[in-house]
Amino acid sequence: MSNPAAERSHFNASRCEACFIRHRGICQALSMEQLERLSSIARRRVIPANHYIFRDGDEAISFAAVNTGVVKLIKTTSEGERHVIGLVYAPEFLGHTFAETHKFSAAAATDVDICTFPRQAFNRLLLEYPDMQRWLFEFTVQELDVTREWTLMLGRKSSFERVASLLLIIARRTRNAGAQPVHENCAEFELPLTRSELADYLGLTLETVSRKVSQLKQQGLIELRSTRDVVVPNIERLAEAASMDEHRESAKAAKVAAFPA
After folding, report:
1. Does residue 143 sit in the same domain as residue 179?
2. Helix (H) or strand (E) holding 208
3. Could you tell me which of 89, 96, 86, 132 has the C-alpha nearest to residue 113?
């Protein structure tokens, strides 16, 4: 007589081994035996676009690994204003393991495929597997680094450079998440945010974002197949447009070095 629980565990492990993020994200830190343990507590969920995964203040009863799609993180002020504060792509992790409640809301920006893990069972695995702890620590440090860089960008860059920088980040993260560009220096993606959300995320007005997107299109740095479908013909050119401040500072420093006062 077959053992349904054993069959279910074997199926999940096989599915995990074939999953796109098996050798990326938190799963890359696991041996096959450890992956079976993780898959035994995992629940696969498909979340339609614009549906919430959890809300600010909800009890943090589970965590999630993003397999495909984009999740937007939202913070609501005491006045009821919603602000997008981040984006999560595959194979990134969603949730904070030591928080009793969620400090922000998470909603599907596109259709999203995730694996959720019950908090208590997941934390027990963390205690058993140091490699999982190390990966989670490194991921948290990377999140902090990205936040610091984003804060610096908002403070120093022009509106044109901000829009170019965000599109560059989305292009690179889309490629890292497994979307295949036409060739290695090109990317194509669906914008995970509306124009008004882009404006809010960048600290700009909707009109300014629309103008800067039009300028990027006129300069051949992006192509728009629809209001949300974006093609970046040359990622290096977009990177140059997004980094004008750095290029100016480098040129200024070189000039000072060549012609000291």
Report:
1. no
2. helix 206-218
3. 89
